[in-house]
Design a protein that fits this description.
heterodimer, A: 208 residues, five-stranded mixed sheet, 33% helix, B: 727 residues
Chain lengths: 208, 727
């Protein structure tokens, strides 16, 4: 076979392999990014055992986060945007997982969260608070109304670590502005807080 | 081939070349942009890996971690996206498929980078930036696969993973269309930009092709010019040379680049070449000269070299253009011609010498023949003997005439004929010629009539003897060739303001038109040689040559049965008497020869009656001057010996003896050696003057006479009595 023809045949084969590899790679990546994290047993009202002081008569937002989860960066960004739209209407807390044996006090995520005006950054030793609120995935955000009732639960990113417009943020903005929200729960995309196997397809509760 | 078809062919060649240049330029752009993307994709791959390692190196599951999938995606998916287009740029650089693969890969890289950056809005700019970079190809079609990839990405993800794109679980297809529309919005302007770029490229290609065709035409003209052409730089070295020049000097163009024109110049012409180069540098225009080059083998080439300096718009010299034409052949021809002429001159001189000697050798026995012939005619007792003697003398005279004419013609051809051009009174010349012709005319019962002239004092500038010779020749032809009882007429008329025409006409049988062209050919008697009329066939040939020598012309009009009219045309001149009168009035108060104190005798030897009259007029009012005149050299010599004049005025052109011979004899004789001699001649050549002054002339005056100078010469040449005493 002439060299030129060999090259053409090889190129065609390479093109096929290239297409397949890219299709497979993108499919895998997108599937990964679109896979939500697990959601625990949610507290429908403000947990009484929580160490966080809820201000009565005012909505309270709580985000549970893993200080090292790269996907949570998008969640923090979206939180900043959310609070920019609802300035002063909610008390916000971001609770970062703090295992006893690890020194995760000063991560970039914690600094980013602390930089958001109106956000209180707290440590969640061994994930105790996450358990109380029923959050198992980093970036899980909960909104309690002025009476301490859970009005929203879920993530505020469209996919893993993917910033941009998303249903969770839209719902929170609507609720905090006393508007009807299309949904009261969304999928949460992020690292596991508990260390156990992630269960995809967390519970979604539509608020209709 | 017609000019129009040549024009079409040039246009077609130009269009073809423009298309070639355009495609060449396009390919260059494709290759360069391919190379750019190959580097860009590698850089993007590496950047993606770095970004993944920085942004999301690990993913966490509680307190345990593992490498984040973004890192693997950056390495493997990024590598997969990158490797194939790079392969394509290596294997099929510039090919359309390569551009399209790159377009697809670049958009996929955008998708990957957006994913790796967590969907940051800033990273989306990569899509728009990539489209712009793709437009570097200046091929709008490459934007199609790129746009399709973006659109497909949004549509597929909108359908299968809408949450990841739009943040909703179920997205409307219109959102995907909206996203794609923004990309298409940019595409529109990029397509316009590509179209403009292509249009500019076409325009540049057309201009370049037109310039190339033009340059090629000029180059072809330069190369194929039949004369040598070369461009010489300011460093004096050859820059370009055409084939003709290279062939001429036998050097290749490459070899010439290491040489200067001076290296090729014949050493004898180097100085000339330097002067020319300097002139060319300093002054505008072309400079032409004949100079010699040397071929490689040393052979000399004669050439005509024309050079000019090519200058820029500011007039600053850029280089010199020289055109060299090989004229060696012409030079050789000229040399051969010169040698042939010299040879011919030598032959002519030999011929003249031969004729001169033969003339002498023939004249000597003729002298005896004619002399004794005449004696026999007188002394013979019987009629028969006198008749025989008459035949002898007639034949002798004919032979003598023939010899004289042959000699005259040979003198004219050799340029050795001495002429004394001076004012000649037409009436006198005609009268003398007619008088000489009358006996012959009477013998043949031919009447010779002189037409009265409107202006009796017409003067022509001519040699008096030769003019008379021409007239005699024409008259004798008329008398000889017309039947007995015929008539010959002669008239003088003005021919315009500056010429005089002398016409000799007859009522003879005339000459056939076809013979007229042979009329002035020596020895061609037009058939008369078979008649009883004597003649040599040299008369008219001699007349024509004499007229030309006297700056005149001779023409003929004749028809069979209508007689012939021979006309000579000579320049008209003023009467010397008029000039003399004016000069005399001017000079009388300056010089009074009577003051010399005694009777003085001046002998004037001159055959021209007008000149004699002029001098007589100038001297007649001087009471102390006695003027003796002689119209022949021999008579002049005799008078000089007998009367011992105080001064001799000598004309050089005398009928019997040349003036220089009269001078020589006067100087040779004891009796006349002391008499001062003033030569008066129309010959003003310095050689002649020097020769005669060396021969003993006291002064030399040229005709027409300057009166003042004449009197001055008289005063200087003629000694006063006291001077004689002192001497």
């Amino acid at each position: 076979m002439p060299k030129r023809k060999k090259i053409i045949v090889f190129t065609v084969l390479l093109a096929l392999a290239w297409s397949g590899a890219i299709a497979f790679g993108l499919r895998t990546l997108l599937a990964y990014e679109a896979t939500p994290g697990a959601v625990g047993l949610l507290a429908q009202t403000w947990p009484k055992k929580s160490s966080i002081r809820r201000t009565p008569g005012q909505p309270t937002l709580v985000m549970l986060a893993h200080p090292r989860c790269p996907c949570t960066s998008a969640s923090i960004d979206e939180l900043a945007e959310l609070l920019a739209h609802t300035h002063g209407k909610v008390n916000s807390y971001v609770l970062f997982l703090k295992p006893e044996e690890r020194d995760w006090a000063e991560t970039s995520l914690q600094r980013a969260a602390a930089a958001i005006p109106g956000v209180t950054v707290l440590s969640d030793p061994d994930g105790a608070e996450a358990k109380l609120f029923g959050a198992q995935t980093s970036g899980h955000t909960l909104l309690f109304d002025a009476n301490g009732h859970l009005v929203f639960s879920g993530g505020i990113t469209g996919s893993r670590g993917h910033a941009g417009a998303n249903a969770g943020e839209n719902a929170l903005v609507a609720l905090l502005n006393d508007q009807p929200a299309e949904r009261s729960a969304t999928l949460v995309f992020g690292c596991s807080l508990s260390g156990g196997e992630q269960k995809s397809g967390g519970q979604l509760t539509c608020r209709k | 081939m017609s000019q129009i078809s040549i024009g079409f062919e040039r246009e077609a060649a130009s269009a073809e070349r423009a298309d070639q240049l355009f495609r060449q330029h396009q390919q260059e752009i494709y290759h360069k942009t391919d190379a750019l993307f190959a580097r860009l994709m590698l850089a993007q791959w590496v950047a993606g890996i770095i970004a993944a390692l920085v942004i999301s190196p690990q993913t966490w599951n509680g307190q345990t971690s593992q490498i984040h999938i973004h890192v693997w995606a950056a390495i493997f998916l990024g590598g997969a996206i990158t490797v194939f287009p790079i392969w394509m740029t290596r294997v099929f650089p510039g090919a359309a498929i390569t551009r399209h693969v790159i377009a697809v890969a670049q958009m996929l890289m955008s998708a990957l980078l957006i994913g790796l950056s967590g969907g940051r809005i800033e990273t989306h700019f990569h899509v728009f930036g990539s489209l712009v970079i793709l437009s570097f190809y200046r091929d709008w079609r490459v934007l199609i696969p790129a746009t399709l990839v973006v659109a497909l990405d949004h549509f597929v993800r909108g359908i299968y993973w809408p949450y990841s794109v739009y943040g909703v679980l179920a997205a409307s297809p219109w959102r995907s269309i909206e996203h794609a529309a923004w990309v298409i919005f940019e595409d529109v302007f990029l397509v316009i930009s590509c179209a403009r770029s292509v249009s500019e490229m076409l325009s540049i290609a057309n201009r370049t092709a037109a310039l190339e065709v033009s340059e090629q035409n000029f180059r072809q003209i330069f190369e194929e010019a039949p004369i040598g052409m070369a461009v010489v730089g300011l460093d004096e070295r050859f820059r370009q040379a055409n084939a003709a020049f290279c062939t001429m000097v036998e050097y290749s163009e490459e070899e010439l680049r290491d040489r200067t024109p001076l290296d090729l110049t014949d050493p004898e012409d180097v100085a000339l070449s330097r002067q020319l180069a300097s002139a060319m540098f300093e002054t505008a225009g072309s400079h032409r000269v004949e100079k010699r080059y040397r071929r490689r083998n040393g052979e000399v080439i004669w050439s005509t070299r024309t050079g000019c300096m090519i200058r820029d718009e500011a007039g600053k010299p850029r280089h010199a253009l020289i055109m060299v034409e090989d004229i060696s052949e012409r030079k050789r021809g000229e040399e051969a011609l010169r040698e042939a002429k010299e040879e011919a001159d030598r032959a002519n001189r030999a011929k003249s010498e031969f004729l001169s000697r033969m003339s002498h050798e023939l004249r000597t026995p003729l002298n005896a023949i004619l002399g004794f012939g005449r004696l026999l005619e007188r002394q013979s007792a019987s009629e028969t003997q006198r008749n025989y003697a008459g035949h002898i003398t007639n034949a002798g005279r004919h032979l003598l005439d023939l010899i004289n004419e042959v000699l005259d013609i040979s003198r004219i051809e050799a340029g050795g004929l001495q002429l004394s051009l001076e004012p000649v009174c037409v009436a006198d010349a005609v009268a003398e010629a007619v008088d000489l012709m009358r006996p012959l005319a009477a013998e043949r019962q031919i009447s010779v009539e002189v037409a009265p002239s409107q202006d009796p004092v017409l003067y022509v500038l001519a040699d008096r003897q030769r003019l008379k010779q021409v007239l005699l020749n024409l008259l004798s032809n008329g008398v000889k060739y017309i039947p007995v009882g015929g008539a010959v007429g002669i008239s003088a008329t003005l021919d315009g303001a500056e010429n005089i025409r002398l016409t000799v006409s007859d009522n003879g049988p005339g000459i056939a038109p076809e013979k007229l062209s042979r009329l002035f050919t020596p020895f061609d008697r037009l058939g008369a040689e078979f008649s009883s009329i004597q003649g040599s066939g040299l008369g008219l040939a001699l007349c024509r040559r004499l007229m030309i020598a006297m700056q005149g012309t001779i023409t003929v009009e004749s028809s069979v049965g209508g007689g012939s009219r021979f006309s000579i045309h000579l320049p008209r001149t003023e009467s010397p008497l008029v000039r003399g009168a004016v000069g005399k009035r001017l000079m009388t108060d300056r010089l009074a020869l009577s003051d010399l104190g005694r009777q003085r005798t001046i002998l004037y030897i001159e055959d021209n009656l007008s000149n004699l009259t002029l001098i007589e007029e100038m001297l007649q009012e001087q009471p102390g001057i006695k003027l003796l005149t002689a119209m022949q050299g021999s008579i002049g010599l005799d008078l000089a010996r007998r009367s011992s004049p105080d001064l001799i005025l000598l004309d050089l052109h005398l009928p019997d003896l040349p003036g220089w011979e009269v001078l020589a004899q006067l100087q040779a004789s004891e009796a006349t050696r002391q008499i001062p001699i003033i030569v008066i001649s129309a010959d003003a050549t310095s050689n002649q003057i020097e020769r005669l002054m060396n021969a003993g002339a006291r002064a030399y005056l040229t005709k027409p006479l300057d009166v003042a100078e004449f009197y001055r010469a008289l005063e200087v040449a003629s000694p006063r009595p006291e001077e004689c005493v002192a001497a």
